[in-house]
Amino acid sequence: MKTKDHKTHIGIYGRRNYGKSSIINTLADQQIAIVSDTAGTTTDPVKKSFEILDYAPVILIDTAGIDDTGDLGEKRIQKTIHSISTIDLAILVIADNVFGSFEEDLIKKFNYYKTPFFILHNKSDEMKIDEDLKIKLEETYKTTVADFSTVKTDNFDEIIDLIKKTAPEASKVFKTIIGDLIQPNDVVMLICPIDSEAPAGRMILPQVQLIRDVLDNHCVNIVLQQDQVEEFFKTTNVKPKLAITDSQIFDLAGQLVPKDIPLTSFSTVLARQKGDFENYMKGTPKIDDLKDGDRVLILESCSHHVSCEDIGRFKLPAWLKKYCKCELDFDIVSGLDAIRRPIHDYAMVIQCGGCMITKKQIHNRLLPAIEAGIPVSNYGLAIAYVQGIYQRAVEPFNL
């Protein structure tokens, strides 16, 4: 199951009027990004999904020029810089044999986020890249520099091959979620509450992902609601190899599922699959250190209609305050929006399961907090901790 969030994200960066939008259109063979001779035509990042044959689906991201000017231009630049934390591969576009501080600063950002990149010298139909400059850039930055023209696309296949070669393998592979915990024909119980948080007529993405993952591993799904669990164990002799519950009913599930059956949550297994699980494990017990007036940052990976049963906005903050017996302040940031406050304002950062974003995006989102020594956790682990079943929640992973 490879949903849009698992596609390789490719960002196109460079100065204004260097042909970034034309490159997007040429690679995708569609008129996606607006092209104009006027510098600064691209404002917010523009995304387009397309399939590279014999490779994988990718998302191309067109960005505003890094040399934009004025107050509005500065905001565009900030969005361009912020987008670097969300991509798997960067293409740095230069032209007219110009390479200076704008490009150097971009490469520093690529390196900070450990993002591989290569350099395209665009408009090569007007001016080929200077061979000395090419050699210097390749030696200095240990990357490939290639001429390109959206007018004469003679080396189109070469650029596609360069994308395939440079993109990290991890961005193309969907790693199994619980495949190492189960064997073919094992039974896995998925406890799925149907409440106001569940979209009408369908299930939430983590539940769908786990159902598919169980099937992919040739195992058997038992999918039920919390009020059916007790009756299931009373009336059947089936003993699941593993039980997975929604985080919000962790405490109830802990009472309903026999102690000899490993139990964890959707959010926890997703955190293990693509979150920073090692730092979650280190950070979660720091909940005990929270005190009056501390500020906690809640990171959601998606934007959605908010209800009173929302886990991140209502239930988790209430559980934390009750457990810590103190007043805490909470900031909620949805999707991949920029964090407004300085990261040092926070005593803890708690990330959701991340079903809607990539592993790279989660790790880069948490990087500033980890570098600042701020504890990070995850919805599932934090909820298990405050509800007193943390050890049971992580026991399936032999930790």
Structural description of this entry:
The structure is a single chain. This protein has 399 residues and is α/β, with parallel strands linked by helices. The chain has 3 domains: 4-171, Rossmann fold; 187-269, Rossmann fold (3-Layer(aba) Sandwich), CATH 3.40.50.11420; 278-390, Rossmann fold (3-Layer(aba) Sandwich), CATH 3.40.50. It has 14 helices and 14 strands. It has helices at 20-28, 70-83, 101-112, 131-141, 156-166, 205-216, 226-235, 250-256, 266-274, 277-283, 311-324, 359-371, 379-386, 390-394, and strands spanning 8-14, 46-52, 56-62, 89-95, 117-122, 145-147, 187-191, 220-224, 242-245, 263-265, 295-299, 329-333, 348-351, 376-378. Strands 2-3-1-4-5-6 form a 6-stranded mixed β-sheet, sandwiched between helices. Strand 13 (348-351), helix 12 and strand 14 form a beta-alpha-beta unit. Helix 11 runs parallel beside helix 13 (379-386). The longest helix has 14 residues, at 70-83. The chain is globular and about 75 Å long. The two termini are 28 Å apart. Residues 1-5, 31-42 and 304-308 have low confidence and may be disordered.
Q: What is the CATH homology-level superfamily of the largest domain?
A: P-loop containing nucleotide triphosphate hydrolases
Per CATH, what is the topology of the largest domain? Rossmann fold
Largest beta-sheet details: 6 strands, mixed
The CATH architecture of the largest domain can be named as 3-Layer(aba) Sandwich
Question: What would you call the shape?
Answer: globular
Q: Which residues form runs of ≥5 with pLDDT under 50?
A: 1-5, 31-42, 304-308
Percent range of helical residues: 25-40%
CATH class of the largest domain, anyone? Alpha Beta
Order of helices and strands: EHEEHEHEHEHEHEHEHEHHEHEEHEHH
Number of helices: 14
The overall average pLDDT, rounded, is 88
Number of strands: 14
Which structural category do the helix and sheet elements fall into? alpha/beta
End-to-end CA span: 28 Å
